Amino acid sequence: MSIRSRLTVFYSVILCVSLGVFGVVLYLTMAHSTRTFMENTLAAEMQRLNENHVQSLAYIQWPNPTTGMDNTYWQACDSKGNVMGRTDNLKDHNLPLSDDGLRQIQNGQAIYEVAQVDSASMLVYSQPVNSENGIIGILQVARSVAEQEQALATLQTALVVGGMLTLILATGGGWLMAGMSLRPIDHLTRTAQQIGNERNFDRRVKYHGPQDEVGRLATTFNGMLAALESAYQHVTQALEAQRSFIADASHELRTPLATLRGNIALLQREPPIAPDDRKAVLSDIVDENERMIRLVNDLMTLARAEYAPDVKLESVSLDSLFAEIERQARGLHPSCTFRVGYLTNLQVKANRDTLKQVLLILLDNAFKFTPAHGQVELCAEQCGNHVQIRVRDTGVGINHENVAHIFQRFYRVEQARNGTGGYGLGLAIAKALVEKQQGTIQAESRSGFGSTFTVTLYGDETMTPTAYQPQDHLVRTYSYAK
Ligand code: ADP
Question: What is the pTM of this model?
Answer without folding.
Answer: 0.56
